[in-house]
Amino acid sequence: MSFRRDFLRTLEAGTVGLFLIQAVRYVYATLYAHASSADLLQRTVDPDVYANAPGAIEVATVQIEIIMLIALLLLPLLALIIGRWRISFPLAVLMVAAGRSVALQVTDTEIATGGLVVGGGLLYLALTIIRRPAFFPVMLLVGFSAEQVIRALGDTYDYTWRGDYMVPVTTGLELQMDILIAIAAILLILFSVLLWFDELLEARRPGYTRPERGQLNLWGGLALGGLLYLEFTVLSLPNAVARWANADYAGIVPLLIAATALPLVPEVRNQARQFASMFDSAWRGWLWVLLLCLLLVVGRRYEGPVAGVALVFAQFITVLTLWWFVQTGSPRRNITGVNVIVAVIAFVTLSVGDYFTYDYAYVRDISDPTYQNVDNVLRSFRNMGLGLALIAALLVSIPMILARRWIPWRGGRTLYTLATLVAILGTSFVGAATSGTASSPRPPANSDCLRAVSFNIHGGYSQFFEPNLEQVAQLIELNGADILLLQEVDTGRMASGGVDQVLWLARRLDMEAAFFPQNEALQGLAILSRVPIVDSEGLLLPSDGNQAAVMRVTLDPEAGLNDPAAPTSQLQVYNVWLGFWLAERDGQPVPFDEQDTKRQLDSLLNWIGTPAPDTRLILGGTFNFDFRQAPTDALYNDITTRLPNLEDPFADRRIVETVFLVNDTQWRYDYLWIRQLPRKGTMIDASEEGANTSDHRSVIVQFLRRGGEPALTCP
Q1: Which domain holds residue 578?
Q2: Which residue, among 657, 193, 223, 633, has the nearest Cα to 397 in the 3D structure?
Q3: Angle at CA 710, nearest 5°, toward 705 and 715?
Q4: What gap in Å lies between CA 152 and CA 239, rounded to an integer?
Q5: Residue 486 domain-assigned?
Q6: Maximum alpha-carbon separation in the chain
Q7: Where does 77-182 show beta strands of DSSP type E?
Q8: Residue 666 region by backbone torsions, left for phi larger than 0, else alpha for psi between -120 and 50, else beta
Q9: Rounded CA gap, 27 and 109, in Å?
Q10: Is residue 477 part of a domain?
Q11: What is the pTM of this model?
Q12: Is 556 inside any structural domain?
């Protein structure tokens, strides 16, 4: 009876935890997109012109969404009133299940329904701490582990938020995701009612003893907020861990799933208790935080398997501290609901800081003296990703530092240990099997005639921030790219839903991929290719504004071809993102030689050097200047002068604009040069699909692999 009840409680808590974790990611990314869209729309010359643009949303709508979300985030306060009611659990579960299902059924309610899942999930969390404190860690760890498996199945993409996604159930049978989620929501409600009824019967049995109660104090709330920040930004995402450590994603997935779930094994906690008891209680917590910080630093500052293992171990000891957050007993006033709100505030505060570690350069000057220096403070978050993680690690360790008289880790029955270990091994195996299922890269349709494409995908959003990663993939397929240069790519940011866009696009398009980070290891440049990649490297360029960078990959177009006339040199491909040209700084004109763009271009050209006469080369990307305007025309001339025989295939075209701004101006910011590659065709994708996919247009050049065959016709 006890095992069955614990299983039902684990199933209920884990499912609610999964829905809560998924909803937090979804609401964060959606709110980011809506706020960005509203800010952009209000800066247009005529907002009515863009009213029907994909993703366009008004400021008033976003304000209502924010107010609604804040109200829903206060739902944990209900625990102060209904915390003693047994039926409080089914009520919280009903909120979570209804919100999760309706989110896929009703359009334009993303923040309301997602916020209901988050608010209801936080209420359930508060009730669990109060009435079932032993299941508080279970709720979060099962939830994070399940999410890791779901993302491994989707190549880091969470398809459970796409209602029209078809899920194969059996041979010849597929169900839409919205139907599956509705079924899961109904089953969750039934499980909760069954468990509530079972607890009612148990309370009526002779000799019934009320279970031990728990509470979350202020320090526990701060610790929970810090833990959630670490989990959502890095430690629970295998792709983020892999990018931080520059390690193999497929190898990280099973290790991270195991590290997340292993503290659920009673014997593991018993061993942790014996290990912790070896240290003086006055220093135990401080040693713990130092170890966690050391692992985070090693994982961020070093690369390869050692860094990956360090972050996996950091995840293990981070989630192991969950047992220290809750205190058991019977306090006169249990304000757990209030301290769950404290956790939310701590998490949101750190998350705002995380946002500005990427978008620091886009903070506008604030003239209001009331907020003096706020703009400078926000810009100072540049390169502070590791610093914020260390602050969160300190918050996570506070309860352990303060608790000197007890160690909350306890062992358990052998049956529980064996059952949990089997479940973890099975889950890790599924993660390993699904994360390494990338198909072999598809070769070019015509190995003699190749097509290069440069495309700034705007973080996987349209001009007005409609999520559209699938549309990006479809447009690339239509463009027929063999060599693809991508700019503004995310590989695990909360703002883009935690998706590794490089890995997802590479597997979706059956291409090889290389990535070079510009900001915090999770945003940068990528090159995807059907031509075999030999090696890759990158360089951060000097930047006062947003960090600029260049990456280079070496391709071998002759790999697997029996071509006695093949060139001896390999193909060098350079992908670039440069900073913006500034008209003034602090109210003063910026001299030409002090412009970020000028200094970055000089560093770029010095890094490339002078190519050998027969070197085949592609240079492309987002340069953020228009060669037709003074004084930036001098930058264009520098490129063509210092790289002899470099051809701009678009120089003689009448229409060359590649970026369309909301102030009704169009510029050529995206370029694609070729060298020692006979050109066969050019195109700028001005289609409606292209206009709805990004604020940039893809630039396409078709060329021959080698010279000497001018009569060859390309498709």
Answers
A1: 449-704
A2: 223
A3: 65
A4: 9
A5: yes
A6: 94
A7: 166-170, 173-176
A8: beta
A9: 11
A10: yes
A11: 0.95
A12: yes
Write out the H or E segment, with its range, that includes residue 449.
strand 449-456
Last residue of a domain, one of 168, 192, 211: 211
pLDDT digits (tens, 9 = 90+) for 266-295: 999 999 999 998 998 889 999 999 999 999
Instruction: Report the CATH number that the domain containing residue 507 is assigned in CATH.
Output: 3.60.10.10
Average pLDDT (438-452) is 87
- Residues 38, 111: Cα–Cα separation, whole Å: 15
Please say if the pLDDT value at position 367 is more than 90: no
Distances (CA, A) of 44 to 48, 151, 456, 686: 9, 37, 21, 21
Out of 211, 226, 242, a domain closes at 211
Place of tokens 């001009």: 463
Query: Which residue do the tokens 């002779």 mark?
Result: 206
| CA distances to 244, 306, 307, 350 from 247, in Å | 8, 9, 8, 26
In sequence order, the 6+-apart residues with CB closer than 8 A to the CB of 641 are: none
Least confident stretch, 436-445, 546-555, 561-570, 647-656: 561-570
Within-domain flag for 343: no
Whether 317 and 292 have beta carbons less than 8 Å apart is answered as yes
In sign, the C-alpha dihedral spanning 322, 323, 324, 329 is: positive
What's the rounded Cα separation, in Å, for the pair 125 and 19? 12
Task: Please calculate the CA angle 97-102-105 and round it to the nearest 5 degrees.
Answer: 140
Distance CA 347, CA 99 (A): 22
Residue whose entry in the numeric block shows the structure tokens 């949990």:
420
Q: Which residues contact 650 (CB under 8 A, 6 or more apart)?
A: 656, 668, 671, 672, 682, 684, 699
The number of distinct structural domains making up the chain is 2
Beta-strand relationship, 523-529 and 512-519: antiparallel
Stated as kind and residue range, the H or E segment containing 672 is strand 670-675
Residues in contact with 27: Cβ distance below 8 Å, sequence separation at least 6, in sequence order: 69, 110, 111, 114, 115, 118
CATH of the domain at 149: 1.20.1250
Amino acid at 276: A
Q: Side by side, which strands form the sheet with 548-555?
A: 533-541, 548-555, 571-577, 616-622, 670-675
Question: Rounded to an integer, what distance in angstroms lies between the CA atom of residue 254 and that of residue 44?
Answer: 47
Residue 91: both structure tokens together:
């009520």
**Residues 107, 26: contact at Cβ < 8 Å?**
no
pLDDT tens digits, 218-245: 999 999 999 999 999 999 999 999 999 9
Q: Are 600 and 576 in contact (CB under 8 A)?
A: no
- 387 band by pLDDT with thresholds 50, 70 and 90: very high
**Residues listed for the chain:** 715
Band (709; pLDDT cuts 50, 70, 90): low
Q: How far is CA 313 from CA 236, 308, 398, 451, 476, in A?
A: 12, 9, 19, 44, 38
CA distance 80 to 84: 9
pLDDT the model gives residue 711: 57
